[in-house]
Amino acid sequence: MSNPLLVEITRGGIVESGHTGAFAVVDSEGSVVLAMGDIERPIFPRSAVKGFQALPLMESGAAERFQLTDSELALACASHSGEERHTETAASMLAKAGQGEACLECGAHWPMGEKAARALAAAGIKPSALHNNCSGKHSGFICAAVEMGHDPKGYIQPEHPTMREITHALETMTGYNLSNAARGVDGCSIPTFAIPLKNIAAGFAQFASGARLSASRAKAVARLRQAVAASPFHVAGTGRFDTVAMEVLRERAFIKTGAEGVYCGALPELGLGIALKIDDGATRASETVMAALLTRILELGNEAKVVTERLDHQMKNWNGLEVGRMRPVAALRG
After folding, report:
1. Model confidence over 90-143: pLDDT tens digits?
2. 274-312 burial by CB neighbour count: b if 16+ within 10 A, else e?
3. Tell me: the pLDDT tens digits for 318-332?
């Protein structure tokens, strides 16, 4: 099954290029309420499921024991830009668990935020694992390992008891048997599993509503949603769509981007989950599709201009001249 065109780029009044993909919107009963494309084909959700991966941090009691703040819990769900507030928060999480930066096994890379990367380079400082966009998630893993009585060393390995708990959380939230799923290695070195968009969206519907979850898990997802709504900066960073959209929407939407054109979301007031994948991996297209779905489902108006403006996004050249537009296809806008 070929996926349909979801986003088109125009120049000179005609469509110059486009992005194909698929998406599923699922309710708390697991029923598909809106979809386009092949939602049964397994895809790697990558960082878009960090909310699921943070559940052992909550359910183990680590978040409560170490008195993790909203910012720290939001960072556990983040793909952050490596700004100073991000690295300081990750370091704080580790310190609360009696650990340090050397415990991180995510690897080091330059900050995703250009301003943060330039500042680091200008100061002659090499990036550390704290600048890795996944350092918050990994700090959460380490906190959970310490609370559960496990040696954090090797926590990124599939057989580590903490990683087994994280994998189990992913499996139970999506209702997909991961023992038979294709498994790869994510950018931050932890396992990543191929799961159908329909299942991922169903998991986010439960994340949104707490429906069909145990009381303890429902409490955990509610706390994570609350933390992210309170501190959306820590989920991404300055100017990034996750952050700017949730700064406006707050508890109306929990959204999270992932590598290779994946985007997921939970809409608590409606009990809906969203999962989408752009075939060519383009972030610009995944953000446009998510903006279209948020606008269509939540019926957003001018109060959420940072979201709705992406329904017909102006593209400019280096001289500031408009050269084209980027927009979701008419069928997606509804």
Report:
1. 999 999 999 999 999 999 999 999 999 999 999 999 999 999 999 999 999 999
2. bbbbbbeebbbbbbbbbbbbbbbbbebeeebebbbebbe
3. 999 999 999 999 999
Tokens of 77: 């769900």
Q: How far apart are CA 226 and CA 7, in angstroms?
A: 31
Show the tokens assigned to 151: 């040696």
pLDDT tens figures, 26-50: 999 999 999 999 999 999 999 999 9
- Phi, psi (degrees; rounded to nearest 5) at 208: -75, -40
User: Phi, psi at residue 185, to the nearest 5°?
Assistant: -115, 125
Q: 22-303 maps to which CATH number? A: 3.40.710
Write down the residue that tokens 């997606």 correspond to: 332
pTM > 0.90: yes or no: yes
> CB of 238 within 8 A of CB of 82?
no
Candidates 276, 279, 274, 308; CA nearest to 292 is 308
By the 10 Å C-beta count (0-12 exposed, 13-18 middle, 19+ buried), 236 is classed as buried
